[in-house]
Amino acid sequence: MKFFVVAIGLIVVSGLVSVRSQTANDTLLEQRLQNLTKQLRCLQCRNETVADSPAQIADDLRKEIREQMKAGKSDDEIIAFLHERYGDFILYNPPVKATTYLLWFGPFLLLVGGTLLLFRFLKQRRAMIETKPLTAEERRRAEKLLREI
Amino acid sequence: MKKLVFIPLALFIGLVVFLFIGLHKNPNGELPSALINKPAPAFQLRQLQNPNQTFSTEQMRGKVWLLNVWASWCEPCREEHPWLVAYSKTGIVPIVGINWKDDRAAALRVLSEGDNPYAFVVSDPEGRVAIDYGVTGAPETYVIDRNGIIRYKKAFPIEQDIWDKEIVPLVRKLNQ
């Protein structure tokens, strides 16, 4: 009798554990899916991510990505798969290549240019400062003011 | 010093010019296809009219052919349909249709209402083959050469103008 109770208890517990790990796996997968699809641009409603878009194609892509994840593909492999088919447009994080140099390095050019301009401006300002010695009258007034403090 | 004052103005004018050009561009313009000059993804799918038979891309090897992605729920495809019928009658190039994520009965109705422009029509109910081709919407048309390489893609209905000026010359060239 005791044996049966223990056995049934074990079966129930192991069942619960496997169900839990199953749902934990699913949540993990969905989280991974969410993270990955946030980096992908939907091809139909152009300024939405595949994660957010209600478009049919985004739905298909989510399905495809979920299946590839279940099949054990890495995020990089999945991105390569999609990039091969849909081109750079699907990536919100564009690759560094000849056509995207301006995009990637343009801001740094602006920063360098702006810094140079700023230094030139400051140098010109400094040149504008004239040192003028005080006259005797001004010196007397200044000393009087200092004494008042 | 005086000259520096005009820098913001120059930047502003530059920005206005850029935005002005941007305003006149089509935000939903065609995306460059990633598959041009690459092998057309091979597939084998059930035929729409006769699901017991399949069609495989291997069957078109050695031929120049068009691949047209369509669906009965797609308005522009229905508009394109009679044009495709007319093009198919010229016998210049065989057209293979992929019926994309469609209801079979509805698709068959479209084909029975007018003529059928397709040499073969296959069903892609899940849209799996469409993903392989990077299909973003319907209709889409591809020109595939004798070696199975994609030479052209249009994500737009094939109007008479596109047919005359782009597709026919390309098919002729590829057939030489």
Detailed description of the structure:
Helices cover 70% and strands 0% of the residues of chain A. Chain A is an all-alpha fold and 149 residues long. Chain A has 2 domains: 1-95, Cytochrome C biogenesis protein (Helicase, Ruva Protein, domain 3, Orthogonal Bundle), CATH 1.10.8.640; 96-149, no CATH class. The longest helix of chain A has 36 residues, at 2-37. Chain A is elongated. The mean pLDDT of chain A is 86. Chain B has 176 residues and is an alpha/beta fold. Chain B has one domain: Glutaredoxin. Helix content of chain B is 37%, strand content 19%. Chain B has a 5-stranded mixed β-sheet with strand order 5-4-3-6-7. A two-stranded antiparallel ribbon of chain B has the order 1-2. The model of chain B has no long low-confidence stretch (mean pLDDT 92). Chain A binds chain B through residues 43-44, 46, 56-57, 60-61, 64, 83-89, 117, 121, 124, and chain B through 1, 4, 7, 27-28, 31-35, 101, 126-128, 130-137.
What labels would you give this structure?
heterodimer, A: 149 residues, mainly alpha, Helicase, Ruva Protein, domain 3, 2 domains, 5 helices, 70% helix, 0% strand, elongated, B: 176 residues, alpha/beta, Glutaredoxin, five-stranded mixed sheet, two-stranded antiparallel ribbon, 7 strands, 19% strand
Helix count from the secondary structure assignment of chain B: 5
User: Structural class of the helices, strands and pairings of chain B?
Assistant: alpha/beta
Sheet having the most strands of chain B: 5 strands, mixed
The largest interface is: A-B, 18 and 22 residues
CA radius of gyration of chain A: 34 Å
- State the oligomer: heterodimer
**Unreliable residue runs of chain B:** none
Q: Number of helical segments of chain A?
A: 5
| Assigned CATH class of the largest domain in chain A | Mainly Alpha
Strand count of chain B: 7
Strand content of chain A: under 5%
Reading the helices and strands of chain A in chain order gives: HHHHH
Strand order of the largest sheet of chain B: 5-4-3-6-7
CATH topology of chain B: Glutaredoxin
Specify the CATH architecture of chain B.
Answer: 3-Layer(aba) Sandwich
Structural class estimated from helices and strands of chain A: mainly alpha
Instruction: Tell the overall outline of chain A.
Output: elongated
- Number of DSSP E strands of chain A: 0
Q: What does the overall shape of chain B look like? A: elongated
Task: Report the span from N to C terminus of chain A.
Answer: 101 Å
